[in-house]
Specification:
The chain is α/β, with parallel strands linked by helices and 240 residues long. Helix content is 43%, strand content 12%. The strands form two sheets. The chain has a six-stranded parallel sheet with strand order 3-4-5-6-7-8. Strands 1-2 form a two-stranded parallel sheet. The longest helix has 21 residues. The chain is globular and about 45 Å long.
Amino acid sequence: ENHGVVGLEPNGAGLAGRVGELKEALRGREVKISAICAGFGGFILSEDQAVRDEFDRTMREIIAAAGELGSTGVIMVPAFNSQVPVMPHTQSTRDYLIERLRLLGDYARQCGTTVILEPLNRKEAFYLRQVADAASICRDAKNEGVKCMGDFWHMTSEDPSDSGAFLSAGPYLQHVHIASRATRNMPGEDGAVDNYVDGFRTLKQMGYANYVSFECGSKGDRMQTVPAALELVRSQWKEA
């Protein structure tokens, strides 16, 4: 709050038990809950029904808590590379994912929030890598509770253009993550490569009004690197 930050993105693990704590901590402050970052058990594309059931149960708990906190949505990844056994990358798997997302989207809307698909780079997840892929799933789900996001770190590897990635998301863009582009640390810690102006310009053109969250580490002293990163992001947003 002292640095003008207006959003807090907590992890979803155990969130249901922390709703009161978070509400009290933010009472009367400018800082609000932005998106909720995962935290569920299991995964939606597991071949094991018990694992899928665990995902559905824990994801719904987080969605309900997110709604209570006024969050913009709960971030989810269909499957990380380490999560096996996983359904094959086929049309039937995509159809199954969309069917399940519709149900989650309905529940999220009832709770006053959304489900947000996050594309990752191929080192982390084979299934969903480009923002346009996530947007096409949102489009086919035809559910206002199903949205997507862009992460500058992952987009650096997978999307040829920041502008193109955000434009491809269109009305489904619900959240943005940012980090330095070479080492996933504070914006600016990787030098000149940490340029986000093209993406910011497109977000402005799109009328994007939700959060840009830091999801990163820091190579240096956070008392210096965090304020410097905020200044860099604000100056580049203004330049855009």
